[in-house]
Structures are given as structure tokens and as C-alpha cells.
Amino acid sequence: MKSLFACVVALVLAACARIPSRGETQATTPNGADALDVVTLNLWHDKQDWPRRQDLIVRELEQRKPDVVLLQEVLQDPGLVNQAESLAGRLGYQYRFFSVDPEGQAHRYGNAILTRHPIRASEVVKLQPLDDYRVAGWVRTEFDGRPLDVYVTHLHYKPEGGAIRARQIADVLAFIDRTGGQAPAIIGGDFNTGDGTPELAGLSPRFTSAYRAAHPDQDVDAPAHTTLNPHMGHPSQRIDHVFFQTDAFRVGEARILFDRADSDGTWASDHFGLGVRLVDVESSKRR
């Protein structure tokens, strides 16, 4: 009888372990040589208790071990080490920081790319209009023995600013055309709009929304899929995205991250993060 009870308990626990987290697709792909893990997160600069929030972020990233981390609202200030530098140092990653603020200035604000693979090249471009203080950053790194182009951006924030975001997407695509070469590419960050809105139409068909592709039978624009943290008073909207080059990858998993507070009620950010696992199509063919 005890043996039968133990078996039942084991089966129940195993079933519970297979219940996906909120926003996680059922069809997951094991992390392997041909699986590229990407995380994007708006850091919310140094608001509230940054040291504690940093610990929460590091803990999650250490568990997931992503190949690439895309960060927005990254700050450095007198008395505050560049947040991307701090995270990269704790994780043992390389990083590049991208800002309209000149190098050497004490206060700088922008985006960053962290990677656990070597960085071979990087560049930043300012997005129009220049008084919107928006940039896109590029890193050439390696994945599975091949070059990989990674881009991060943070677009105009006003709801009525669709035309501005469309112009900025055009700038990002021109930047990709100039820097990309023959390497497969991914783009991620805070786009301040849903991935199905007209201003992002320029990304299609070259790029595919990883989250939408991973949840084909769900209404991914519903509040349950928000990346804005409603506990911080934000509306429930999914505005943080990862897009992958359509002919280079297929999606294995896409899930919302950092969507739970710690035991003291501290949140990692006023955004939730997005974790994406992509399968390299060429590597899969070779295996």
C-alpha cells in the first residue's frame, strides 16, 4: 500500500512539474547546441530598490543561462555603476552599452546587449527624430560556431506616436541592412506597441514575432500576456518583443519572465521580461 501511495504521489508531482508557466508554450525545445536562448527586459533604470531588484534579475538569469540578454532603460550615474556592466560582471557575460549620451559623460542612459559568447563587433545608431533620444544597438557575436547579429532598441513611447515608431523601425531596418551581412539576425526590446500594429509592419516578412509564433492558438494581445507590470499601475499590454529572422530560426519556446514578486513584494521591474528559445534551422539540418 505504501508503495502504491508513493507511486501516486510521484505521478502527481511529475504532472505538476509539466504545467507551463504563464505565457509558456507547450511545445518547448530542450536547450542544446542548436537552441538560442534570448531574454529581453526593460530595467526601469534605478527606480525603487535597485540592489534588491538586481539580485532578483541575476537569480533568474543564472537559472535560465540565456545566450543573449537585451536590456532597455539602462542607467549609469555618479554613484551608480552602469547597470549593464554590473549585470554582465555578476553573470560573467560580455556586454555593449548604447546611448545618445557621449562616452565619458557621467550620466548616460540607453540600451545594452549582454552575451555569454565572444563579441566580434558592435555599433550604435541614433533613430529619428533625433530629439526623441532613441537608439538601436548591434552586436556581432557567435552561436553554434556561426556569426549571429543581435539588435536591441527602445522605440517612442506615446500611444499616438505610431508614425514616429514606423520611422524608427525603418531606421532599424536600414541599420540591419548596413551591418548585417550574411549572419542570421534577431531584434528585441521595448517597442512600446503590440507586434501586430501597423507601425511594426515593416519588420514582416523578414522577421517573425517569437511570442506570437509560439502561441498560434491564443489571443496574445489579451491582458493575460502583458509585459507591462499591472501591479505598478500600468495597463495590461504586451509591448516587449523578440523578432527572429524568418528563414533562419523557428521558435521552440516563448514565455513571460519576472512576472512574480519576491517574498517581500519586490518586483524585478515595472515590466515583465520575455524569454525566447529559438532553433537554428541550418544547425538542425546538419544534425
How many DSSP-defined strands?
12
The helix content, as a percent range, equals 10-25%
Major β-sheet strand ordering: 3-4-2-1-12-11
Total domain modules: 1
CATH architecture: 4-Layer Sandwich
The number of helical runs is 6
Low-confidence stretches: 1-21, 23-31
Structural class: alpha+beta
Q: Report on the biggest sheet.
A: 6 strands, mixed
Could you describe the 3D structure shown?
The protein is of the alpha+beta class and 287 residues long. It has one domain: Deoxyribonuclease I, Chain A (4-Layer Sandwich), CATH 3.60.10. The chain contains six helices and twelve strands. The chain has a six-stranded mixed β-sheet with strand order 3-4-2-1-12-11. It is globular and about 45 Å long.
Identify the notable features of this structure and list them briefly:
Deoxyribonuclease I, Chain A; 6-stranded mixed beta sheet; 287 residues; globular; disordered N terminus; alpha+beta; 6 helices; single chain
Short description:
With 287 residues, the protein is α+β, with helices and mostly antiparallel strands.
What's the helix and strand layout?
Layout: H1 2-17, E1 35-42, H2 50-64, E2 68-76, H3 83-91, E3 94-99, E4 108-115, E5 121-127, E6 134-143, E7 146-154, H4 162-179, E8 185-190, E9 207-209, H5 210-214, E10 240-245, E11 249-257, E12 273-280, H6 281-286
Parallel strand pairs: 1-2, 7-8
Antiparallel strand pairs: 1-12, 2-4, 3-4, 5-6, 6-7, 8-10, 9-10, 11-12
